[in-house]
Structures are given as C-alpha cells and as structure tokens.
Amino acid sequence: MGILNKLTNNFGLKALRIYGLSLYCKYLFNFILNLHHLYKNRDLTVIDKKMDKYVVNISYLNTSFKFDCGFGSSYLKEGPSFTLIREICVSDCYFKYHHPDVFYASKTVLDLGANRGVFSALMASHATRVICVEVQPHYLPIIEHNMKINNYQNVFVEIGFVGTGGMFGEHGKGITIQGLLDKYNLLSIDFLKIDIEGSEFALFESSSWLQRINYISMEVHPTYGDPGRIISALHEQDFKILMADRKLFLPNEVNQVTFIYATRTSKG
Length: 268
What we know:
Rossmann fold; 7-stranded mixed β-sheet; 12 helices; 21% strand
C-alpha cells in the first residue's frame, strides 16, 4: 500500500499540474526505465536522481518558480534536489493541512532549516519578504543561485544555528527567532516553517515569540525530544493544531507525529 500511495501522489493529475507536461513526461519516462529499482528499493530516489540534471519550472497554486537541480547535484554529493521539490510541492508536506488561503496570505515568511532553499523559493514567488535560515554553509551557494535565477530580491539568507541540540549540535552563529524579528523589524510573521533536525524542542521552552506567529508548519524529530511538549506550548499560545505522520496521514498517537500544522485562533 505504501508504494501505491507514492505512485498515486507523484504521478497523478496534481503532479502533472505542478510539473507541467514536459517535465511530467520526463519523470514518467524515467519511472518506466527504472521500474526494477523501484520494485527493489520501494522509494523514488533513483528516479529523482535521474531528474536532478534539469532546471525545473514548478507551478504551485497559481504561482511559479524555477529551481536548478543540476547546479545542486554538481555542487553537492548527497541526495537529489528533486526529492525536496517532490516532497514540498507534490506531496505538499508543509501545506497539506492548511487551507490554501494560508499560502496566499503568507506575505512575511520565516524558513528555519532552509536546506537548498526550495521552500524559500516557493514562498518568495508571492511573499513580500522571506527570511531563510540554514545552519550548513555549504548550501549557501545553492540558495543564492536559485534566488538569482528567479530574480528574487525579497529573500534574506542567514547562516547559523537555531535552538539547542539535535543532529547538528550547537555550532556556528547562534540565531534566535526574537533576534530575527528585531533585526528585520518584524511585528509579526505570517508563516513559520521549521525543519531543524531536532533542535526545535528548545524553541518552545520559552515560547513568548509564538504570539508574533500566525501559522506554522514544522517537522518534528522525536529522537531528540517529546512532541507533546511542543503541542502543549502551541495550545497554551492559542494555536489550533493538526498532526501528521511521516506519510502525511493523521496519526493515532503523539509518538507517531512527524509534522505539526498550527493556526493561531486569536490574532493581534
């Protein structure tokens, strides 16, 4: 059933609309050529690698942006950029349980854990300002390159560490959400995306900054902490939440949570 869901999500009409006919046909062609790998490995990474040589044009909710997968694959020797595009735009991991109006209404965006900047590029297509934070400096040329090819002037990149602990420990310049609010003179943030590999739990130990946030999508990493602590902090700050597991299904237990979608119920 797992592989069937992947095929349905990644080769349906939604994928066709997002990729466009030309890119969709290339993806489908590589899928057919690599059926034996798909059957053996039960994931789409081998196909994503084949797609990682293209500059892709992505359409999402009547907005569009370009992303140079080939630049990233030539610069880095790690997972394909196309996987991130597929997860963010087709699987819709950050907006699946938010109303589409949230996407359009998000004019000030904070992207914590930007990686190569796919989410920032998506949001910058319509936002007024996107603040893009990444702890790993080797991603900076990829982020800058992809903002440049889109002619974005509304993306501001910070290299540094947010939170405490997690996969990367505490190295590099320390960055706080309050510090970003102050630096960029922000009274509020419309949309906060968090994927910081386990250091997210410390953010919610003192969470007065949540009063300045309207919507949140975040990936949580239970190896490094208890998602229940984050959920409690969000409830205390008047957020309505939905949770999803790694496959983006609604889970039965808190320990199955991978994604949290939060909406402030009282603004101002």
